[in-house]
Amino acid sequence: MPLALSERVIVERAQMLPAFPTVVNDLLMTLDDDNATIGALIQLVGRDPVITARVLSIANAAAMAGRIQRDVRDMQVAVSLIGVARLREIVLTLSLAEFAHGAHVGRQFWEHSVAVGVAAQELARIGRASVDFALVCGLLHDIGQLWMARCHPLEFQMVRMSREQEPGLDIIEAERRHFGVDHCAIGSVLAGAWQLPPSVVAAIRHHHEAHPPADKLVAATHVGEALANALDLVGHDQASVVEVSAGACELLGLHWDDDLNFLFGRIEARSRFLNRIFS
């Protein structure tokens, strides 16, 4: 008998998870603000001493690589060394890494999320969509599974057992059998409750669907997970996308007949680099 989970119950039980980092929402809001300045971004980062320390650490590493004999202790200097785009990526990844760590998530779950985030970024770049929004979509695409594991561990294990006993059983079907809903639906409810942008909510909700998406971020997340699994970056197969939407690839301008080795290599290198930094 599957669980009877309403949106209200999902949100209430999300209290078992760590508080969602508000810096993510604040940073994403600055992307739509034409008046947002580097100073405002630095002020935003400065609220969190952990993030500030990590940014300065990365800036110092960049300074050493560039043979700059200087101990970077100022955020303005740090931004000049690593760039605004890199700063946003660091803040988003680190804040969500802290969130996942606080939820006691397994290492493989987080490494897979990073791989999908990076793949979604690279695909968003091809499709001329926001790489920052794509990163968040990828990092949070399986957040519903984290909720399942924390709030209903017995049923979560039953899903795993069902797939072991029935090879080929789709993860979505297995989850609906025991939870009544799948991790995509649960994740989208959580994202909505955290007041994330509608495009992020949609990407989380529809990342397993093979029909043509109407949004490039949905497409990037959907194809991004398929690529992360196909490249076998972390050996994660618990929530793999079974069928890749041809419409999603078309929307992104991704053509499999092209030489995509550079894209694959970049996804692999960047995902391993980020996982090494933020593990």
TrEMBL record:
Signal peptide: none annotated. Keywords: Transferase. Residues 17-210 form the HDOD domain. Gene3D superfamilies: Hypothetical protein af1432 (1.10.3210.10). The keyword Magnesium does not apply. Pfam families: HDOD. InterPro entries: HDIG_dom (IPR006675), HDOD (IPR013976), RNase_Y/CdgJ (IPR052340). One of its GO terms (molecular function) is transferase activity. It comes from the Bacteria. NCBIfam families: HDIG. This is Putative nucleotidyltransferase with HDIG domain. The lineage of its organism: Bacteria, Pseudomonadati, Pseudomonadota, Betaproteobacteria, Rhodocyclales.
